[in-house]
Amino acid sequence: MESNTDISAARSEGRTLTLDIVAPDKRVFQGIVARIRAPGAAGGFEVRYNHAPMIATLEVGPIILTLPDAQKLTFATSGGFLEIIGNVGTVLAETAEPASHIDVDRARAAEQRALERLRAADMSLDRVRAERALERARNRLRIGMARVGERAGS
């Protein structure tokens, strides 16, 4: 758990990272962050100031940014890659949607459609696609419902 002392020290000492989150159709976020939590293919992980250079594969899940003032921003992603080099991070996401932009009713409807397709899937490829769609819909729904009290994404 982070303390106010950790965040204050990061802000006053400049222990931050520059981050871009880019989806195929637009830049979703650009700014300075104190830390990044992401859903890695091998499990969730966190990146802070002076992290070793890395490239990680991202899975469906939340990307949670802690800003230097301790505010948190959450984005629903359906996968992609995160690169960290010299306190500069880039997320190349299949999709990335700020929690504040998620329409919970629409996400709930997408979940229902995915469940219906899953029940009706007769070929293995259809089943895999339906399971992936259900996973994405449920991720958006969880993140959209949890957004209360968070600041709107950029």
3D architecture notes:
A hairpin with a 5-residue loop joins strand 5 and strand 6. With 154 residues, the chain is an alpha+beta fold. The chain contains three helices and eight strands; from the N terminus they run H-E-E-E-E-E-E-E-E-H-H. The chain folds into two domains: 4-100, F0F1 ATP synthase delta/epsilon subunit, N-terminal (ATP Synthase, domain 1), CATH 2.60.15; 102-144, Single alpha-helices involved in coiled-coils or other helix-helix interfaces, CATH 1.20.5. Residues 7-11 and 148-154 have low confidence and may be disordered. The chain starts with a helix and ends in a 9-residue tail after the last helix. It has helices at 4-13, 104-120, 124-145, and strands at residues 17-23, 26-33, 35-40, 43-48, 54-66, 72-85, 88-93, 96-98. Strands 1, 2, 3, 4, 5, 6, 7 and 8 form an eight-stranded mixed beta sheet that branches.
Fold blueprint:
Elements: H1 4-13, E1 17-23, E2 26-33, E3 35-40, E4 43-48, E5 54-66, E6 72-85, E7 88-93, E8 96-98, H2 104-120, H3 124-145
Parallel strand pairs: 1-7
Antiparallel strand pairs: 1-2, 3-4, 3-5, 5-6, 6-7, 6-8
Helix pairs in contact: 2-3
